[in-house]
Amino acid sequence: MASLQTAFNLSRPTLYRMFQPLGGVSHHIRHRRVLVAHQHLRHDPDCSITWLLYEAGFTSERQFQRAFRATFGLSPVEWRDHCRKTSEHRWRNRRRTLSVAAFPDTAKAHLSAMAVATH
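-> structure tokens emitted (119 positions)
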């Protein structure tokens, strides 16, 4: 809190008044931390939840889990599992697309051979 006051040269009451419409300073900070953790899990679903909660600025696992569930309706572990499934699905589809795009002549020849074989 003091660092925000110093950075923006604001008094404590002014800072609190500014953040009142957002639910208060602590609520806003906690919400931003949860959003950062959510994004991080989407991009790196194999990271450790314990590492992530401390990295995002939470001091306890319970506090992190409650805030995450309140914001997104599921636990960090459930979100991570979902991200793992979708990233695997995207990776498989991406590999398939990349292999066809990387070798268009080979892919066309393969598709032509399949068409001839079925007729």
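Residues 58 and 103 are 48 Å apart (CA to CA).
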